[in-house]
Design brief:
Number of helices: 9
Helix content: 40-55%
CATH topology of the largest domain: Glutathione S-transferase Yfyf (Class Pi), Chain A, domain 2
Bound molecules: glutathione
Largest sheet: 4 strands, mixed
CATH architecture of the largest domain: Up-down Bundle
Shape: globular
Structural class: alpha+beta
CATH class of the largest domain: Mainly Alpha
Distance between the termini: 25 Å
Strand order of the largest sheet: 2-1-3-4
Radius of gyration: 17 Å
Number of strands: 4
Number of domains: 2
């Protein structure tokens, strides 16, 4: 398996966590978003979206992180499952995971932020305000939902699953944009529990070969 990703890409981070949780070995292939390597014709010929992550398995290129996560769970139904067994439990996990993936990531993605700057002409302060606005609009209800559900260290049961795989990268981005998480005790408790696990530590952006934190660039 080869994972084409970028250390700071939150969708790549999702896949790294999921592969680690399932104990699936993979080769990390960095694609530099800053230089636009994801738009190179050779890459686009394999992935017309020109997006990360892309997972190459047995000669097949698969993209779109949420579809990939669900595919991984079906193709490799090893413990732990990313989605629980019961229909209602699966609904609750998807409710929150897809809320973050579709309502925050989609509007705060790098091409959107670049477009706000050029051609729309917004400065960095305005872009940061945009970013935090869309975070708050969905993270507040996620936090309220976690309070309603009375969650412990994880949304469902005693292990992380699809929700945590999506939440942790989003919180890493929130912290990069100086988003105030002091009023989110449920999310930050879950974050602390996840970040103590080896699968999450190994997947962290700072621990990737293409991260400047590793002194590679
Ligand atoms: N819906 C896609 C979004 C993928 C995506 O936009 N990834 C970002 C990195 S987090 C990316 O590749 N951005 C560069 C671009 O689209 O030009 C998914 O979930 O995989």
């Amino acid at each position: 398996m080869r994972l084409f990703g970028y250390f700071r890409s939150s969708t790549s981070y999702r896949l790294r966590i999921a592969l680690n949780l399932k104990g699936l070995a993979f080769e990390n292939v960095p694609v530099d978003l800053r230089t636009g390597a994801n738009k190179d014709p050779a890459f686009v010929s394999r992935n017309p979206f020109g997006s990360l992550p892309m997972l190459e398995v047995d000669g097949h290129d698969r993209v779109q992180s949420m579809a990939l996560l669900e595919w991984l769970d079906e193709a490799y139904p090893l413990s732990p499952r990313l989605l629980p067994e019961g229909v209602e439990d699966r609904y609750v996990v998807r409710d929150l995971a897809y809320g973050i993936a579709t309502e925050i990531h989609a509007v705060n993605n790098l091409p959107v932020l670049k477009y706000l700057k050029d051609p729309l002409g917004h400065d960095q302060d305005a872009i940061d305000t945009w970013y935090r606005h869309w975070l708050k609009r969905t993270l507040d209800p996620v936090e309220a939902r976690l309070a309603q559900l009375g969650t412990g260290d994880f949304l469902h049961g005693d292990a992380p699953g699809l929700f945590e795989v999506v939440l942790i990268p989003q919180l890493a981005n929130a912290r990069r944009f100086a988003y105030d998480l002091t009023h989110a005790p449920h999310m930050t408790r879950i974050e602390a529990a996840c970040l103590a696990l080896p699968a999450f530590v190994a997947a962290h952006p700072d621990n990737q070969v293409d991260s400047p934190e590793r002194g590679q660039q």
